[in-house]
């Protein structure tokens, strides 16, 4: 069952009855709004359009543009925090001075700096967008007058730029110190490794190229290895020559005792003894001639006796030549033996040298790789240090913020006018008073429903707080309207 509508007469009576309540609330709120309008000062806003770029050091190909939207957003948020930095705001306030002029040693106070930094300074994106969508931002400030807002904006921008340069310089100094320490440490390690490497190179100074060839995987044979191979070939030839000379000596010794030993020898052994070779040929011819004559003449025949005599003379001559050749071969044989021994010693020395080089090759290769790696690290550290020094120099001479024009001051103050504040407060007080009246006013349904809206909500009746005899009388006596309806029915 729906409740009956509230009669307009009842509403009028309630408003008239409680007129002091809602009128008083409206007046009080209006007075408060008027006081706020009278005692509060207008705030004028100034906007400075700026373009933020990235550092060009190490990123010349991007010409100062940010590599990603995330980097741009982070830089703009950093700019906002820098603009609200108490030191920056305090320096800007000192530049513009107190409101109304004058000098004050304690100006600005900490409270004023915090208030201005949190409420009157802001960095916003264009057209209400978010950071990271555009490199253009606006530095927004508020002040008591248009001129002060413009001056405060310029002062804040100047101190913000100076503070950004200081931050960049401090960051570059920190990076330079870190990179300098890294470079010095790398250089110390490199010097230590070079000292160890130098000791090995001094010890193997004449064989340094051979050691490096052993360390180089793609290089061919070294000089020592080629020398050893050539020496081995020469040693083989010398040993063959020595064997030939020994065989010739043995043949000559045997020939010095029996010339027939020379006759059965080959021409290769006697090639170095031309006289013996000719005597051998003559003896063979004499023997042939003697054998031919023996078949024709007797021994007493002059021709045969002459042939025998010739054979004997050649034999005797061969004995003498063989003995002389044996004596003459001793220096040659000695030289051949010395040459073989010298080549053997040289071969042993080369083999020992290569063994020593092979033994140190592993440690030298490790040192060489360390030198190469440390040299590359040192070059990278030098390059990074150069970039950091260039960034520090740029921080002292260039700005990352570029102005796109002078500060822009609005035509009217920020926020609501005094009339709007007063009228709004008056209307709020009226609403508050009417709401209070309708909460405390009795309802239109009579005492059975309760006098207050709270009684209707909780189900409490008006007779619950009356004495029993009065409550019984009220309950037994019907309302006038009900009695009239009963009489009309009758």
Automatic annotation (TrEMBL):
* Source species taxonomy: Bacteria, Pseudomonadati, Planctomycetota, Planctomycetia, Pirellulales
Does the record's keyword annotation contain Acyltransferase?
no
Name the segments for region: Disordered: 460-490
Q: What's the source species for this entry?
A: Rhodopirellula halodulae
Query: Per UniProt, which keywords does this protein have?
Result: Coiled coil, Membrane, Transmembrane, Transmembrane helix
> What is the residue range of the signal peptide feature?
none
Which segments of the protein form a coiled coil according to its record?
A: 333-391
**Name of the protein described by the UniProt record:** Uncharacterized protein
| Extent of Basic and acidic residues compositional bias | 481-490
Q: Does the keyword Transmembrane helix apply?
A: yes
Q: The organism sits in which domain of life? A: Bacteria
């Amino acid at each position: 069952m729906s409740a009956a509508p509230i009669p307009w007469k009842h509403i009028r009576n309630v408003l008239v009855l409680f007129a002091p309540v809602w009128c008083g609330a409206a007046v009080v709120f209006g007075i408060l709004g008027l006081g706020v309008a009278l005692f509060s000062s207008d705030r004028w806003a100034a906007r400075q359009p700026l373009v933020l770029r990235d550092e060009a050091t190490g990123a010349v190909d991007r010409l100062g543009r940010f590599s990603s939207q995330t980097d741009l957003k982070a830089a703009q948020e950093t700019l906002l925090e820098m603009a609200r930095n108490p030191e920056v705001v305090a320096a800007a306030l000192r530049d513009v001075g107190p409101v109304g002029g004058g000098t004050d040693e304690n100006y600005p106070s900490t409270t004023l700096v915090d208030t201005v930094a949190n409420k009157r300074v802001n960095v916003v994106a264009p057209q209400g967008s978010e950071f990271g969508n555009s490199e253009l931002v606006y530095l927004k400030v508020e002040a008591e007058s248009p001129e002060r807002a413009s001056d405060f904006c310029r002062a804040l921008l100047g101190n913000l730029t100076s503070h950004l340069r200081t931050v960049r310089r401090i960051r570059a100094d920190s990076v330079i110190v870190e990179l300098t320490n890294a470079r010095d440490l790398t250089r110390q390690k490199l010097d230590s490794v070079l000292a160890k490497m130098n000791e090995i190179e001094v010890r193997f100074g004449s064989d340094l190229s051979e050691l490096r060839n052993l360390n180089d995987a793609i290089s061919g044979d070294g000089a020592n290895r080629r020398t050893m191979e050539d020496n081995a070939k020469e040693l083989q030839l010398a040993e063959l020559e020595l064997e030939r000379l020994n065989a010739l000596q043995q043949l000559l010794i045997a020939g010095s005792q029996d010339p027939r030993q020379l006759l059965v020898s080959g021409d290769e052994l006697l090639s170095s003894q031309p006289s013996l070779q000719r005597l051998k040929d003559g003896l063979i011819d004499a023997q042939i001639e003697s054998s031919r004559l023996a078949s024709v003449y007797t021994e007493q025949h002059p021709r045969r006796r002459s042939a025998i005599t010739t054979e004997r003379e050649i034999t005797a001559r061969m004995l003498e030549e063989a003995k002389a050749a044996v004596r003459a071969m001793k220096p040659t044989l000695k030289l051949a033996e010395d040459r073989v021994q010298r080549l053997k010693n040289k071969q042993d020395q080369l083999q020992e040298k290569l063994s020593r080089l092979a033994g140190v090759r592993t440690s030298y290769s490790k040192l060489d790789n360390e030198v190469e790696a440390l040299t590359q690290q040192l070059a990278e550290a030098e390059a990074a240090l150069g970039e950091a020094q260039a960034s520090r120099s740029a921080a002292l001479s260039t700005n990352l913020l570029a102005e796109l024009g002078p500060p822009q001051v609005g035509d009217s103050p920020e926020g609501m006018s005094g009339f709007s504040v007063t009228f709004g407060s008056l209307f709020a007080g009226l609403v508050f008073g009417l709401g209070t009246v309708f909460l405390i006013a009795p309802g239109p349904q009579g005492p059975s429903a309760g006098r207050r809206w709270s009684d209707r909500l909780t189900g409490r009746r008006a007779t619950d707080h009356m004495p029993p005899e009065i409550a019984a009388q009220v309950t037994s006596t019907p309302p006038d309207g009900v009695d009239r309806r009963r009489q009309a029915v009758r």
